[in-house]
Amino acid sequence: MKNILMTTLISAFLLGSASMEAKSPSKWEKEAVRNAREQMGLQIQAIENDRSGKVLNPVTTKLNRYATAYCGYEDWRSGFFPGSVWYLYELTGDRSLLPLAQKYTEAIKDAQNLTWHHDIGFIINCSFGNGRRFVKEDEYNNVLVQAAKSLCTRFRPGAGIIQSWNVTGNSWQAKRGWTCPVIIDNMMNLELLFEATKISGDSTFYKVAVSHADRTMAEHFRPDGSCYHVIDYDAETGKVLHRHTAQGYAHESAWSRGQSWAIYAYTMCYRETGNPKYLDQAVKTFRFMKNHPAMPADCIPYWDMDAPDIPYEPRDVSTAAVIASALYELLTYPVENPKECRDYADRIMKSLASADYTAKPGENGRFILMHSVGSIPHNNEIDVPLNYADYYYLEALLRRRNLDR
Q1: Out of 50, 75, 185, 390, which one is annotated catalytic?
Q2: Which of 127, 162, 253, 336 has the CB geometry, 3.0–4.6 Å to 82, for a possible disulfide?
Q3: What are phi and psi of 209, to 5 degrees?
């Protein structure tokens, strides 16, 4: 028994010694964090100096990229800026950011009761989900559980999925002939449900998440690992009515951000369930993107990998940031050739941290990254900064640092 104990203590000592030799942050990484702190500091200053009495929530730019556009709590992007402030606090250790992150998070608290769209996971998990690690754990946990209950009102048992958009009246969704559309983005909201089960002990949230993940895996993906954007179901029978895209170039094209959501979300599903089929799907979709003949040398994808005017099509840094963040988690699991994931993620991050994609402080609407794309088919947010690009970029920086430590 003493020998076993001694061996354990020696192993722990050696592991501790190894951790002391963790990689020091590289020059580009230090500069990336420094730039993020300065740029977001200017964004925070603009918010705090505003005299409207509202807590402003920056999303993108308008008026030829000179003015910042803000959103309300119901907007699917409202959780990303509060979440970015939490991540910036972790990256810098600057305690002055804590009350600000808390203030911006609690300003969107009413989103916990949203039931008319599926993005409550993005909103609440990115803000309250990050914040509960630092402040008001019980209160924030209650918000997450209520948000999960709201999200579950959109679960359609007949199809086994969470409906993404409502189809009403003369909406653009109705004009496409859809009845119960589910978008690949919806996979990202499942993390909220997994967290809610861990907090509450209620397995209902877990079961809904797994049902949605399984049906999405069965219906959204092509043999090459790429995914459709939209699958439209009959909500009662579960029959697939359409396989379409709304934000990509064509129904059979590879809309890049959709691929990134799939890589990230199925990595997360493996973390929460341990089911290897989810890990396999994440890796397959990653390799589809990595090996795509149209992927640029700097690893920043075009907005759609099948867009007709490549190499003159807009890039989408939000896609790149999501993929990088996903890969830093993916490589911690039992995947073949984890070095492949690490090297590719680092290539993405070095590109994003370069002057080609990182804005100078005070420019770019005070957002960190340039050159994202919202939806070209809707002529919306083309080659602009987007707050979720910054969020996943900061998350990737943090995950990379934690790996090296």
Answers
A1: 185
A2: 127
A3: -60, -45
